Automatic annotation (TrEMBL):
Domain GGDEF, chain residue ranges per copy: 293-426
Signal sequence bounds: none
Species: Herminiimonas aquatilis
Full protein name: Bifunctional diguanylate cyclase/phosphodiesterase
Start and end residues of each EAL domain: 435-689
């Protein structure tokens, strides 16, 4: 088609679109963000103006040409408002923006009139000769006719905006340099000329297309050169100022500032460290003295942070510390103190407290903030936090004494297990000293061979044969007497001793099983409980392998029991560790089944052989009700999954009878035997080795011998 004019318009559309894209890119990193976005929008509007001009000129019928003409009008009106906003954005004054918003309001009214009028806003009536033929044969649709009042007013508004732009250009002519000024003035002259031609074309005096878009192409170049020059000048000025400041600042002052910051702040979280916390605490003490209010100081500590660092690396531990820091900061006032002490400890100081319940409310608030799981390094970790609290002036009057008090309270909280809160009391000092002595004794217990194992049988519900003995650790101390595991296992975990103690238990249990095998008990295996730290210990597989090899046992001779709540702390990691253990051939079981959470969701993917039904469900099974339903459901679930189930805490014949009826595989409890020392366990195996399936009365008489 012979349409060179239409082709020129389409080419200009592409050029203007590229200019809009370029301005949008510059807007992301420029100090003139709004100005660049405004200029990008103007370029886009002019490209659409050119596009619809071409659509009007090549339209095949008058109706299509008029439809395109209305869009030409729309973008010509929009451009006027955008130019006013562009100037306001560069000038950045409230008065300039008021002018721009006023122009936008008038333009909006004209746009409405444009689309409501069948001929657009330019004409009240049209001349009949709509087509214009140029000498080279190109025929285009050009409208002319009686100009409307709205159009005449809009032309005056456009002229006012152009004058406003000229005045602004005069004021900033020094910013762009000679080349930029020339381009801007050439563009303004071209737009004035093209605007005049547009008016003559609309009146019918001239038959020519709108040329405003081509005039704007020069403004594109002028604007780019102007802003680039301005940015360059600003950078040069900033460099000059920075260099002057650097010369004036003495080097030793900078060094002192860095030293002070490093001395009082934690480099990982950016929070104050212990030294910085003491400074802030002293300030808060002075404020609360003046206001006669209380200052509550908390010390939160991440339980088992050492396990995270050991199993997932310090990078993961550092990320966890940063997220904990952020959550705490988000739930504190600006006037409150937050600092990081050693390892996973965070000090919180909240001043201005008046009621006794304020400490509890603040602890509840912070605990709720820390309760949701942490998404760290691609893993979801559910952490627990121990906390201690001390109050000024009730518990101490100086910053150092308050920190000491709150650390004692935290130590007491952690000794009771993870996730506890303790309030400082003066009696804690004596209690802590006793606990320190207890810890010292625990450190020496393994070396002095004060630990020993007891064994509690697990019998087949079908015929009463003993197939497994669960190894249970005990501590016999010359001063403390017989110490049960619930007093020292958690303490051993917090002290980092559990791996050594656990390795001793596995090795000792395997040695004893080898002795029983030598006595002829070929079908018996031993079960050992694993703590949370043991399960996540990367050396656990090597520990188990060495113990089995030393005792000449196979993997199936050893069963490892893992508490369900431990598995649910980090299910993905637990599955990974259990799979590694299963490759060794050892049996795996879930202890205290039903007391954790989400257990059924993970049970189908956990690589275990059995689970132990918690004694809390077995206790009232003889009375029917919910406990009976839970036991029946659990046993049925185990059968469907091809797993064995062990009922713990069987203490009566009624419980045994009911569990046998339900189809439970193994039974364990005082009804058969309490935990037995080695000699008693050997006697138990000898006395029961010849028994087979028998009536319940006779079975009770036989299995009750060791009670």
């Amino acid at each position: 088609m012979n349409a060179p004019i239409a082709h020129l318009y389409y080419i200009s559309v592409g050029v203007l679109l590229m200019a809009a894209f370029h301005a949008a890119l510059l807007a992301r990193s420029s100090a003139y963000t709004r100005a660049y976005w405004a200029f990008a929008t103007i370029c886009l509007s002019f490209s659409l103006f050119q596009f619809f001009c071409a659509a009007q000129y090549v339209a095949i019928d008058p109706q299509a040409a008029m439809s395109a003409h209305k869009w030409v009008n729309f973008f010509s009106i929009l451009i006027v408002a955008l130019i006013a906003y562009l100037v306001a954005s560069i000038e950045n004054k409230p008065s300039s923006f008021m002018v721009a918003y006023g122009v936008a309001g008038l333009a909006a009214l004209v746009i409405v009139a444009n689309f409501l009028n069948p001929l657009g806003y330019r004409f009240d009536s049209l001349q009949q000769d709509g087509f214009t033929v140029f000498p080279w044969g190109e025929q285009i649709n050009i409208f002319s006719g009686e100009q409307s009042v709205v159009y005449r007013l809009m032309r005056l508004l456009s002229l006012a905006v152009l004058v406003y732009t000229i005045v602004f250009s005069v004021r900033i002519r020094k910013l762009g340099g000679r080349l930029a000024n020339r381009l801007i003035w050439i563009s303004i002259v071209l737009m004035l000329v093209t605007a005049s031609f547009a008016g003559l074309s609309d009146s019918g005096a001239l038959k020519m297309p709108y040329l405003g878009g081509f005039g704007f192409l020069f403004l594109v170049a002028g604007f780019s050169v102007l802003v680039r020059a301005d940015v360059s000048n600003r950078k040069i000025e900033e460099i000059r100022i920075n260099e002057a400041l650097e010369r004036e600042v003495k080097s030793h002052k900078i060094a002192n500032q860095r030293f002070e910051h490093a001395l009082h702040n934690d480099p990982l979280t950016g929070l104050p460290n212990r030294a910085g916390a003491l400074i802030r605490l002293n300030n808060l003490i002075d404020i609360n003295k003046l206001n006669q209010t209380k200052l509550a100081v908390f010390l939160f500590d991440i339980d088992q942070l050492g396990i995270i660092n050991g199993t997932r690396g310090h990078k993961t531990g550092d990320q966890l510390l940063r997220e904990v820091s952020q959550r705490l900061q988000n739930n504190l006032r600006d006037s409150d103190l937050i600092a990081r002490l050693d390892s996973g400890g965070f000090v919180i100081g909240a001043s201005g407290l008046k009621g006794e319940s304020c400490e509890a409310l603040l602890h509840e608030k912070l605990s709720s903030a820390l309760e949701p799981p942490f998404d760290v390094a691609g893993s979801v970790l559910k952490m627990t936090f121990s906390a201690g609290v001390a109050v000024f002036p009730d518990d101490a009057g100086m910053a150092e004494d308050i920190l000491a008090a709150v650390e004692l309270a935290l130590h007491d909280a952690k000794s009771s297990g993870p996730g506890n809160l303790r309030v400082f009391h003066p009696s804690l000092k004596e209690s802590i000293q006793s606990r320190i002595d207890f810890e010292s004794a625990l450190k020496e217990a393994l070396e002095k061979k004060q630990f020993f194992l007891c064994y509690q049988p697990q019998v087949l519900a079908s015929d009463g044969r003993t197939v497994c003995l669960e190894a249970l650790i005990r501590w016999q101390h010359p001063t403390y007497g017989l110490v049960m595991p619930d007093r020292f296992i958690q303490l051993a975990e917090s002290m980092g001793l559990i791996a050594l103690i656990g390795a001793w238990v596995i090795d000792s249990a395997c040695e004893q099983l080898a002795r029983w095998r030598a006595m002829g008990f070929e079908e018996v295996r031993v079960a050992v409980n694993l703590s949370a730290q043991q399960l996540l210990d990367p050396d656990l597989e090597e520990t188990v392998t060495r113990a089995l090899e030393r005792s000449s046992l196979s993997g199936s001779d050893l069963e490892l029991e893992i508490t369900e709540s431990v598995l649910m702390q980090d299910p993905e990691r637990s599955i990974e560790r259990l799979s590694a253990l299963r490759k060794l051939g050892v049996r795996l079981s879930i202890d205290d089944f039903g007391t954790g959470y989400s257990s059924l969701g993970y049970l189908r993917v956990l690589p275990v052989h059995a689970f132990k039904l918690d004694r809390s469900f077995v206790r009232d099974i003889g009375n029917g009700g919910k406990d009976l339903e839970i036991c029946a459901t659990s046993i049925g679930l185990a059968k469907n999954l091809g797993l064995e189930i062990v009922a713990e805490g069987v203490e009566t014949e009624a419980q045994m009878q009911q569990l046998r009826t339900l189809g439970c595989h193994l039974l364990q409890g005082y009804f058969f035997a309490k935990p037995l020392i080695v000699e008693a366990a050997s006697h138990f195996l000898t006395s029961c080795s010849h028994k087979v399936l028998m009536p319940p009365e006779e079975m009770q008489m036989t299995l009750g011998l060791a009670r």
